[in-house]
Design goal:
Layout (H helix, E strand, L loop, with lengths): L12 H12 L3 H4 L7 H8 L3 H13 L3 E4 L3 E4 L4 E4 L6 H7 L5 E10 L3 H7 L7 E10 L2 E10 L15 H9 L3 E12 L2 H7 L6 E11 L4 E10 L3 E4 L7
Parallel strand pairs: 3-10
Antiparallel strand pairs: 1-2, 4-5, 5-6, 6-9, 7-8, 8-9
Helix pairs in contact: 1-4, 3-4
């Protein structure tokens, strides 16, 4: 495919390059994940400097339209997955409602002695075993979120449940436990080597970290959940309304 810009136009070259890139990423062949032409070749074809081209590329990377990986190339970014803070669907139910297929890359179940913060939330001793559920999830193209959940022994989970089903459906239908209240803490942190490997990002890359405390209808704690999201693939939205 031949690309060109108008060097006689009064419009700055970097803005023309930016507009051209916006046209390129709409082409089906690039939307399917094909890498864009490399910077050297594209800059030569457009007869502009790599600095000018990079200025345009950086703008689209900043907007989340392109992703760049050092030594690999630049390609069209997958549409960011978003979640609302007041949404009471489980993750898989929410993604299904949005028409986004979810793939489980890892699923681990174990019985562990809880760390102090988990034990304090559950109001139990650290000697009391709890069920730990780890799930690495994402699209077919790759993972974008790693969940670690701990459940209060009172809930009654055995570990034999089919955790490919929506979690809150399992709790409600199989164990008569209704999740009724969620409190969340959201922050950013750099990915350590383990998280970087799981989420397929470079070590030190920014990730979204969400800590969720879930209670039943009697305001009793039932789940302590940690979520680690790729920053380039997930948007967390909040909504508030002023009371009259």
């Amino acid at each position: 495919m031949k690309f060109s810009i108008n060097h006689k136009s009064p419009i700055p070259l970097h803005l023309q390059a930016e507009e051209l890139l916006r046209t390129i990423i709409k082409d089906p062949q690039y939307a399917d994940g094909k890498f864009l032409p490399n910077e050297v070749d594209l800059a030569k074809q457009l007869a502009i400097s790599r600095t000018t081209l990079r200025q345009a590329l950086n703008k689209l990377v900043y907007e989340g339209l392109l992703t760049r990986k050092k030594g690999v190339g630049t390609k069209v970014a997958n549409a960011s997955v978003s979640s609302k803070s007041n949404n009471w669907l489980s993750f898989s139910q929410e993604m299904q409602a949005r028409g986004i297929p979810v793939r489980n890359f890892e699923l681990h179940i174990s019985w562990v002695n809880p760390e102090e913060q988990v034990a304090n939330f559950f109001e139990i001793s650290t000697d009391k075993k709890v069920l730990k559920l780890e799930r690495l999830r994402g699209r077919n193209e790759g993972p974008f979120v790693y969940f670690v959940s701990y459940f209060h022994p009172r809930v009654g989970l055995t570990g034999d449940e089919d955790f490919k089903r929506p979690l809150y459906e399992i709790l409600e239908k199989d164990h008569s436990v209704v999740a009724n209240l969620s409190k969340e803490e959201i922050s950013a942190r750099p990915a350590d080597k383990i998280l970087a490997a799981k989420l397929e990002v470079e070590s030190g890359s920014p990730i979204l970290f969400r800590k969720r405390f879930v209670y039943d209808q009697g305001d009793r704690p039932i789940e302590f959940n940690l979520g680690f999201y790729r920053a380039d693939s997930f948007v967390y939205t909040t909504e508030s309304r002023r009371e009259q």
